Each structure stands twice: as C-alpha cells, then as structure tokens.
Amino acid sequence: MNYQKILEEIELEIQGALEHGKVADYIPALAEVDPYQFAMTITLESGEQFSVGKSKEKFSIQSISKVLAFSLAIDIYSTSLYKRVGVEPSGSAFNSLVQLEYENGIPRNPFINAGAIVVVDALITHFGGNYAALEKVMNFVREISGNADLQFDAIVAKSEMEHASRNLALAQLMKSFNNIENDVHDVVQTYFRQCAISMNTQELSRAMIYLAFDGKDPISKKEFLSEAQAKRVNALMLTCGHYDASGEFAFNVGLPAKSGVGGGIVAVVPNVMSIAVWSPRLNSHGNSHVGTLALQLFTTKTGLSIF
Ligand code: GLU
C-alpha cells in the first residue's frame, strides 16, 4: 500500500474541515495554539514512518498520557487496580462529577479524568511521592519512544493548575470515599504535569507502537506489557478512549484510540501500525474534529480497521 499517497490524499480532503470545532480554552495556555494546524504520522513494524503536515510540531498530549500512566499502573497493581477504577464506558463528559457520586467514588474507567486521577494517586503511593511518580511516567514515555529528551510543558501544567477547580473537585469527592490516598493538591498537580507532556505526531506514533504489537515494541524489541495487559489497554481505548463519543468513534473509525484536548489522537492497527494525528480544534465531546475525520478517512481508504 502506498501510505504516503494515502496520507497526502487525507491532508487535502480535510482542508475544508480545519475551520470547524473549537480549541480547548478552559486551559488558557492551550487556547494560544494556532487552530489551523494538522499533522499525521504512521509508524510501521519496521520503524518506517510516513507523515504529512506539521509532524515535527510539538503539542500537549493531555489525556493521551492517561494510556501511559495506566500501562505503568497495571504492570504494578495488576487486577487489584480494578477495585479503585472500573473498566466500563462512562457515557459522560471527561470531567463529569455526577456519576462519581452515585457510584461511591469509583470512576467508571481510567480514561475519564476521575479514573486517571486515581491511577496517578496509585502511582504516587507505589513510588513513594509525587515527583518520583512523575519521573517514572516521564521515563516510561522516554523509553517507549526511544527519546530521552521528552519533557512536560511547565507553562501548560501551571496554566491548568490555575484553573483546576473541576479536577480538584473530582479528587476531593473521591477522597471523601477513601479512593484517594495522597494529598489532593499533589495528586492533581502531578496529573496536570503528566497531561502537559509535549510531543509531535512522529514521536507519539513511534511511542505507541508497543500497543499495536501485544505490548512489545517491534523496533527496540523491548517488552513493556504482557500480551494480556496490552489487550486490556486496547479494549479500554476502543470502548472508553473518546469519552461520551467512544461509541461514535468506534462506529466511524473502528480502531482502539485515545484522544486528548490538545487535539491529538493516537490509534493502533493491531499487528500493523500505530498512528498519531493532531489538529487542535475539538468537537463538542472534546475530541479533535479533524483528527477524527482523518482517521475515519484512513480506515475507509485502507480497509485497516479491527472490524
Ligand atoms: N488535563 C485535561 C483535564 O484534566 C485532560 C482532558 C483531556 O485531554 O481530555 O481537563
């Protein structure tokens, strides 16, 4: 298949859609991004990459980082983690409080904010402190991407901390149900720093290829997750990766994937490739409008979906 040609066709076809949607502005530092940008990269088993658009431009990976933290946490806690966070789609917005009250402070899944905050809390407990936990997440992303230079953007993290009421409320509510073990402020700050990791589509697509190959990176040959664990992460990406639009995304794209409010989406085609796409304007569910469209075009043109 001529992947470069397919990506170039997609880049042309999405042009008219670049003005639809709205950049996330509840984190002021994200609102400053040029909204008309687009990039897409695929990484194959051999390590070969194909890209279009601004594939070297870094952006805030935001909720895509939840996949990294969850990968680390299941390796440490195994099934005991599921006492604190479920594995069901929420059908609610990424930062909803309502369900959490009804369900006794146990978030539906690790990819909504409440669930990701619990995962960060579990990492802080295990590694003995918030800085140690963040360092482990950073080291994990550096290792899976083969790039020791990756950093989080302190300005984005600070900007989110200044507008943290909703996430602090989620964490406080869970603490009232004894589902947060550490200091709420420390947990939320660590969560924001993890969300503020900066990567471009070339780096992100390279980093996530372990999920396309049963937890083992086919390029470095390092095993990051067992086959069973990778299956679970992919299943959660398929069912919960796009908040209350997860069904719609599976319906239109047909791949396990995770989005972030920075406008990035990563997707995996099992045993074939990992894909990263970025365009900052979001749809009403908080997922990249053009990113979703580009992935839909990709699976339609190539027939590469899991269905
Ligand atoms: N840091 C963001 C928040 O907690 C992540 C949300 C997202 O990317 O969907 O609101």
Specify the structural class. Answer: alpha+beta
Largest sheet: 5 strands, antiparallel
- Please trace the helix and strand order, writing H or E for each element: HEHEEEHHHHHHHEHHHHEEEEH
Mean pLDDT equals 96
Question: What's the total helix number?
Answer: 14
Portion of residues within helices: 40-55%
Bound molecules: glutamic acid
CATH topology term of the largest domain = Beta-lactamase
How many β-strand runs?
9
- Strand proportion, as a percent range, falls in 5-15%
Question: Can you say what the CATH homologous superfamily of the largest domain is?
Answer: DD-peptidase/beta-lactamase superfamily
Give the total of domains: 2
Assign the CATH class of the largest domain.
Alpha Beta
Which CATH-level-2 architecture of the largest domain? Answer: 3-Layer(aba) Sandwich
Binding site for substrate: 63, 113, 160, 167, 191, 243, 261
Family: Belongs to the glutaminase family.
Keywords: Acetylation, Hydrolase
Enzyme class: hydrolase
Show the helix and strand layout:
Blueprint: H1 3-13, E1 22-23, H2 28-31, E2 39-44, E3 49-53, E4 59-60, H3 65-77, H4 98-102, H5 113-127, H6 130-145, H7 154-161, H8 165-176, H9 184-195, E5 198-199, H10 201-207, H11 209-212, H12 227-240, H13 246-252, E6 257-259, E7 264-269, E8 273-278, E9 281-282, H14 289-302
Antiparallel strand pairs: 1-9, 2-3, 2-8, 4-5, 6-7, 7-8
Helix pairs in contact: 1-14, 3-5, 3-12, 5-6, 5-8, 5-9, 6-9, 6-10, 7-9, 8-9
This protein binds glutamic acid.
What does this structure look like?
The chain contains 14 helices and nine strands. By secondary structure, it is α+β, with helices and mostly antiparallel strands. It folds into two domains: 3-57 and 200-219 and 237-302, Beta-lactamase; 63-195, DD-peptidase/beta-lactamase superfamily (Beta-lactamase). The strands form three sheets. Strands 3-2-8-7-6 form a five-stranded antiparallel beta sheet. It has a two-stranded antiparallel ribbon with strand order 1-9. Strand 7 (264-269) and strand 8 (273-278) form a beta hairpin. The radius of gyration is 18 Å and the shape is globular. The chain binds glutamic acid. Glutamic acid is lined by residues 62-63, 94-95, 113, 160, 167, 192, 195, 260-261, 286. Glutamic acid (GLU) binds next to helix 9.
